Each structure stands twice: as C-alpha cells, then as structure tokens.
C-alpha cells in the first residue's frame, strides 16, 4: 500500500513539474515581442522565412489564406521543417481559410508582423491594407509589378510612416557572400579607385542573372502554382527578379545614400522577350494537365509564351548600368541559376562570375591592368580591412589580378539568406525604424522596374 501511495505521489510531482515547465514555456513564449501573420502564402519563399526559429518570435503563426493547393504546399513545407532530424523547428500553425481571409486577418489582428509571399497581382493591395491596419510587413519581392502598383506602394510607405510600422522587402541577394564582398571592395579606393561613369554601350555596372522554372528546393522538385506563369499575376521578368539586380546596383554603387527617383534615375532603353514552355514542361513543374483559362491568352500552337525575360539600360546618379534577367525551363545537369556582375573602377574591375569555369558557384575577382609592385602592395594592405570583417578570406593571384578565396562557412546558400533578412528586419523592429536610406531606395527601385516595363510595352 505504501509503495502504491509513493508511486501516486511521485506521479503527482512529475505531473506538477511537467505542468510548471509547460506554463514556464508558455510564459516565455508570451513574452516574445513578435508574432507572425502569414497571408496567402502562394510562393515557397513564405515557408523559407520559417526554415529557422527566431529568438524574438512566437512559435504560434497565424495563417490566413484562400483554400487550395497554395496554402497546403506552404503547410507541408513547415511540417517538414518541424519534423526534420537536424535542428527541427517547432512552429504551431493556426490556419483560417476562406474568401474573406484578408478582412478576417485585419479584424483578428492576432500578430504584429505580416509575411507576404505569393500572388504579386494582389500583393501591393495586401501590403497597403496591412500597414493601414497598423501592422508591420515583411514582403517578398516584388512589392509592385506595374506603374499602378508603384503608386499604391508609395501610398503604403506614407501610411507605414504615419502608423509607425515598418514595411520592408526581402532582399536576399545582399547576403550572398560574393555580392557582399564586391560592395566592400568597391568602398576601398586603393583597390577599386573611383566608380566609372561608363557609357550606354559600355556601362560601368552590369548585373545579369539566369533562372529556371524547374528546380529543387530543400532537396525536392519545386511545384509552382499555375498562376506563377501568368505575367499579370506574377509580373514580367523585368519587374520580378530584376528587383534584386536593381537593388544590388543601388546598394553597391551608392551605399547608405538616399536616392531620389525623380532626379537620380534616367531610363535609356528597355526590352522584353518571352520564354516558351511546352505542355509537358508545364505539367512537370505545376502537376497540371491543362493550361488554365487565364493563360490561354499567352498560348500559341499549344506552346506557352511567358514574358519572363527583360533588360534595362539606365543611369543612376550619372552612372551607366545594365540589368538583365533570363528564365529558361531547366538548368543542364550539374548546373543551376547563374549570376554575373561587374563594377568598373578607375584602378580595377570587380567581377562575379558563375559559369562552367567556376563550377557554377559564384566567384569574385579583382581584375586590373596595373601590374606594378606599388599597386600590388596597396591591394594587399587595403584588403586587410575586409579580412578583419570576414576572417579567412584570402587573395589568390592570377594573370588578370586576383581571385577572392572564400571559406565554405560563408557560402550558406540561398535558402539560409531568408533567415538573415528576417533577423536584420527584426533588428530594425527593435530599433523602431529602418535606416534612413532604405525607404527612398525601395521607392527608387520599384520606380525603376515598373517604369522600365511601361517603357518596354509602349515601345512594342
């Protein structure tokens, strides 16, 4: 009898301890200052924001969406992150689905940071309504896909300032290490000299990228929603991926400088072309047997024509820049998305290449015509400034100048950059403000992309 009573007592103590621990965990969660609201997560980037946990973010995430495959795909990815063997996340998703999901979200206001990554046709409106309701917004690019969207986005920034909330877009490419180091080296006059002005035929800054509709994400073939192939919903290439490239031009050439889109940007020429997709390719990437009605306007002889390719030539504060993006269906075996970038200085060019010779991994080079011992010594001395910030990087001499040798620890991959952006945004939320240059430069960026599209369409 005594043994039985002892067992009951021990069980009671364990239950009490468990209850106390659970209450302690719940209390810790309730103290966390940030809580996510995910709205209409139609793009896999919505899930990538949650690939990691964050110290200041509640584990309960409130999801508002229309019912269908998009929200299911998002929840499936979150479940995989929660159940992976290494460093599993522990998100708890509370989901509301219905045609009134946005009104319901604003009425409930169950969090304070809205995450938007989905159909771009609706995104600018979602942004505006969220900041109008006094909610912070972290939005995937692009935040606007046409001139009308740009006007609404400007209104959203005005509303965000009035309501003391932060509106920010997810610029992952700033965290790719070769882009980061290219910017750092351009700040060193002993290595780079001064940024050249260039000409329309020989721009000083060039950013080019090649992307693919069919790819693998988190080790699995990516299934894209059918609407992704409708430029009226996703946006043309000129206003989609080029957002990253235009951002890098601004961020690298004029770091921490506030730009005035009315004075500093001059569009010179633009062009747009279509990528052709066959019905079998469409099925492979969407799992859909037929084109939906909204895509039939873009179909010729069963081939889908998507205006996903764009090029724009412009000047930014007098510096000639060229930005271009190409979408192919699938990368050849052993390859992937590629990026090329050059910044031309009076002493050297800073070039990122990602081709066959680089084994399709981005590599940064310093290339110069100055082969003097004095310049070589100046480069070695000045490079130490960057080495102090990024320990382990080295200069590797070659015929044209130097290759930057970068330790593997800095190459954490595209998916990890979403957490880096989110952490930076959370720092800004703690401070209660963005850097002074961020908002004018986001406005300048979306002006550039949406006006380039308008110009290219008018030209046609």
| CATH superfamily heading of the largest domain | Dihydrodipicolinate Reductase, domain 2
CATH topology of the largest domain: Dihydrodipicolinate Reductase, domain 2
> What would the average pLDDT be, to the nearest integer?
92
Largest sheet: 10 strands, mixed
Distance between the termini: 92 Å
Helix vs. strand class: alpha/beta
**Total number of helical segments?**
15
Q: Spans of 5+ residues with little confidence (pLDDT < 50)? A: none
Oligomeric nature of the chains: single chain
- Helicity level, as a percent range? 40-55%
CATH domain class of the largest domain? Alpha Beta
**Judging from the principal axes of the Cα atoms, what is the shape?**
globular
If you compute it from the alpha carbons, what radius of gyration comes out, rounded to the nearest whole angstrom? 24 Å
Give a count of the beta strands, DSSP E runs of length 2 or more: 18
Strand content: 15-25%
Task: State the CATH architecture of the largest domain.
Answer: 2-Layer Sandwich
Tally of domains: 2
InterPro entries: Gfo/Idh/MocA-like_OxRdtase_N (IPR000683), Gfo/Idh/MocA_oxidrdct_glycsds (IPR050463), NAD(P)-bd_dom_sf (IPR036291), Oxidoreduct_C (IPR032459)
Domain Gfo/Idh/MocA-like oxidoreductase N-terminal: 83-162
GO molecular function: nucleotide binding; oxidoreductase activity
Keywords: Oxidoreductase
């Amino acid at each position: 009898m005594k043994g039985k009573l002892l067992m009951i007592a021990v069980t009671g103590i364990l239950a009490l301890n468990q209850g106390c621990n659970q209450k302690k965990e719940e209390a810790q969660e309730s103290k966390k200052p940030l809580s996510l609201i995910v709205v209409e997560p139609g793009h896999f980037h919505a899930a990538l924001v949650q690939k990691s946990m964050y110290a200041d973010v509640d584990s309960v995430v409130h999801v508002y969406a229309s019912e269908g495959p998009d929200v299911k795909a998002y929840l499936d990815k979150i479940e995989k992150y929660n159940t992976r063997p290494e460093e599993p996340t522990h998100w708890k998703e509370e989901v509301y689905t219905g045609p009134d999901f946005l009104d319901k979200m604003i009425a409930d206001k169950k969090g304070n940071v809205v995450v938007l990554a989905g159909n771009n046709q609706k995104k600018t409106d979602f942004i505006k309504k969220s900041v109008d309701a006094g909610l912070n917004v972290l939005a995937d690019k692009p935040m606007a896909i046409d001139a009308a969207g740009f006007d609404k986005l400007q209104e959203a920034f005005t509303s965000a300032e009035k309501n003391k909330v932060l509106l920010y877009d997810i610029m992952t490419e700033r965290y790719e290490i070769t882009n980061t180091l290219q910017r750092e080296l351009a700040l060193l006059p002993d290595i780079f000299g001064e940024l050249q002005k260039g000409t329309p035929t020989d721009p000083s800054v060039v950013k080019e990228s090649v992307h693919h509709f069919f790819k693998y994400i988190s080790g699995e073939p990516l299934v894209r929603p059918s609407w992704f192939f409708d430029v009226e919903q996703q946006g043309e290439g000129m206003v989609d991926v080029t957002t990253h490239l235009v951002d890098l031009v601004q961020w690298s050439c004029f770091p921490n400088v506030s730009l005035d889109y009315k004075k500093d940007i001059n569009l010179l020429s633009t062009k747009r072309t279509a990528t052709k997709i066959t019905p079998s390719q469409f099925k492979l990437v969407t799992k859909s047997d037929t084109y939906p009605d909204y895509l039939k306007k873009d179909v010729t002889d069963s081939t889908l024509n998507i205006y996903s390719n764009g090029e724009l030539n412009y000047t930014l504060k007098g510096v000639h820049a060229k930005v271009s993006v190409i979408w192919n269906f699938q990368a050849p075996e052993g390859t992937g998305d590629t990026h090329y970038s050059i910044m031309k200085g009076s002493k050297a060019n800073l070039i990122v290449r990602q081709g066959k010779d680089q084994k399709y991994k981005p590599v940064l080079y310093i290339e110069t015509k100055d082969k003097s011992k004095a310049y070589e010594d100046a480069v070695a001395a000045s490079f130490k400034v960057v080495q102090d910030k990024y320990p382990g990087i080295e200069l590797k001499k070659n015929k044209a100048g130097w290759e930057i040798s970068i330790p593997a620890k800095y190459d954490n991959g595209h998916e990890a950059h979403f957490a880096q952006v989110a952490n930076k945004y959370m720092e800004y939320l703690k401070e209660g403000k963005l850097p002074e240059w961020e908002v004018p430069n986001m406005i300048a960026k979306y002006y550039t992309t949406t006006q380039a599209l308008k110009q290219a369409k008018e030209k046609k």
